[in-house]
Amino acid sequence: MRRKITVVGAGFVGSTLVQRLAERDYADVVMFDIVPNMPQGKALDILESGPVLGFDTQVTGTNDYADTVGSDIVVITSGFPRKPGMTRDDLVKKNQEIVSQVTEQVVKYSPECIIIVVTNPLDAMAQIALKVSGFPRERVLGMAGVLDTARFRTFIAQEVGASVRDVQAYVLGGHGDTMVPLARMCTVAGVPIEQLISPERIEEIVQRTRDGGAEIVKLLGTGSAYFAPSASVLQMIDSIMLDKKMIMPCAISLQGEYGIHNLFVGVPAQLGANGLEKVIEIELDAHEREQLNKSVDAVRELVGVMGI
């Protein structure tokens, strides 16, 4: 029996992710949306690319949560989009109700699944999904750090003229303006970036990483990023579905790690067949710790706005 993955929300992020998953060919995929006929149309279009690309994935579009029954992984992308001039914080009240309702249905039809939250403000929405689902923290993950780190690695690779594959980096903290790119630990083929890039330029790259989502929103005019976000979710799903035990930055409900309790914060995490396998604790210097604490305070403030 083939594995099953559900993507809730057939917008740009959701539908692009479904296409990427279909091409992986390791699970059948269900795309849910409340808009009548829209997920059905997109799913059929993706399905018809199978003969050309050589995959046998069954892709189903639906407006009925019953079709998602028995999913192994459910990705929540649904919610109001971020608009120009709008911070992730502005989104919190709008999307709190949506994620709560979606999570209730997910639990009803797939009580053993692993949930990956993509909806913004990410850290706050993951907190909602954990509370509503009642799942253990190992089965509720937030996608943020993979994307932020991908942006950081892209900018560094462009700066030094190297392959992105040679760039290793981590971004910690909340998925927002207070994220913490760890420049001190960033390397290019093992060489610390401090030996390749001036401190002033590193700081500019760090700030561009923090503004990465807003930069794309501004350029697009309407809508927000979806190619890199969907690729980032795919990396998480790969590690879970194939039990790869990859370590990547994800939003995790911390239970004492980094001195933080009961709050979703982006940290390096090992993902495998059970979802979260292990939280990796990095020794931070005083400045990095201060930045992380500021980021944590911002997430805690968001959660407070939701009243949970």
Structural class estimated from helices and strands: alpha/beta
Our Rg estimate from Cα atoms comes to: 19 Å
Largest sheet entry: 6 strands, parallel
Q: How are the strands of the biggest sheet laid out side by side?
A: 3-2-1-4-5-6
Number of helical regions = 10
Report, as a whole number of angstroms, the end-to-end distance: 39 Å
Number of strands: 14
Overall 3D form: globular
Q: What percent of the residues sit in helical stretches (DSSP H or I)?
A: 40-55%
**Which spans have pLDDT < 50 for at least 5 consecutive residues?**
none
Mean pLDDT: 95
* Run of helices and strands: EHEHHEEHEHEHEEEEEHHHEEEH
Instruction: Please report which band the strand proportion falls in: under 5%, 5-15%, 15-25%, 25-35%, 35-45% or over 45%.
Output: 15-25%
Itemize the secondary structure elements and their pairings.
Elements: E1 3-8, H1 12-24, E2 27-32, H2 38-47, H3 50-53, E3 59-62, E4 73-76, H4 92-109, E5 114-117, H5 122-133, E6 140-142, H6 145-160, E7 167-168, E8 171-172, E9 180-181, E10 187-188, E11 191-192, H7 199-210, H8 212-220, H9 227-241, E12 246-255, E13 261-272, E14 275-279, H10 286-306
Parallel strand pairs: 1-2, 1-4, 2-3, 4-5, 5-6
Antiparallel strand pairs: 7-10, 8-9, 10-11, 12-13, 13-14
Task: Tell me about this structure.
It catalyses: (S)-malate + NAD(+) = oxaloacetate + NADH + H(+); (S)-lactate + NAD(+) = pyruvate + NADH + H(+). Residues 4-142 form the Lactate/malate dehydrogenase N-terminal domain. One of its GO terms (molecular function) is L-malate dehydrogenase (NAD+) activity. Catalyzes the reversible oxidation of malate to oxaloacetate. The chain has 308 residues and is α/β, with parallel strands linked by helices. The chain contains ten helices and 14 strands. It has a six-stranded parallel sheet with strand order 3-2-1-4-5-6, sandwiched between helices. The protein has a three-stranded antiparallel sheet with strand order 7-10-11, with helices on one face. A hairpin with a 2-residue loop joins strand 13 and strand 14 (275-279). The longest helix is centred in the last third of the chain and has 21 residues, at 286-306. It starts with a strand and ends with a helix.
